[in-house]
């Protein structure tokens, strides 16, 4: 249903290990997410602390969902001097490749307490259903008679 492919993730990890050396600090994912199926919908939750709802963009093109968010600096005033800067700033982007069984026309998005939650319904044709089985023995007896 939801396909997880990020061809550059492993390449980024390898490059960080080569250039930073083993055991050194590596950059965390800027937009960590959880994805799970709940009944007849997929739910995807992105952690976006410090990002305002107005700084989030959602786009769907064919079966590719793109989430873009911008975390801006919060420093104000002339006498402010940064002492420690560990939180990443700037524009972050993440793409999800959605399966053909998901209804991209009815995606719902909500944002609360720094968590962007997307609810993506499963198409009716992809939901499990019961199939009636015809009794062929009765049909055969009627033909023979």
Give the arrangement of secondary structure elements.
Elements: E1 2-3, H1 9-20, E2 33-38, E3 41-47, E4 56-61, E5 64-71, E6 90-98, E7 108-112, E8 115-121, H2 136-144
Antiparallel strand pairs: 1-6, 2-3, 3-8, 4-5, 5-6, 7-8
Which series of helices and strands comes N to C? EHEEEEEEEH
Total count of strands? 8
Q: Please report which band the strand proportion falls in: under 5%, 5-15%, 15-25%, 25-35%, 35-45% or over 45%.
A: 25-35%
Number of domains as seen in the coordinates: 1
Please identify the top-level CATH class.
Answer: Mainly Beta
Q: Whole-Å distance between the termini? A: 49 Å
Q: What shape does the CA trace take?
A: elongated
Mean pLDDT: 81
Strand order of the largest sheet: 1-6-5-4
Which residues form runs of ≥5 with pLDDT under 50? 22-27
Largest sheet: 4 strands, antiparallel
Classify the helix fraction into a percent range.
Answer: 10-25%
Structural class: alpha+beta
Whole-number radius of gyration?
Answer: 24 Å
Per DSSP, the total helix count is 2
- What is the CATH architecture assignment? Sandwich
The CATH topology label is Immunoglobulin-like
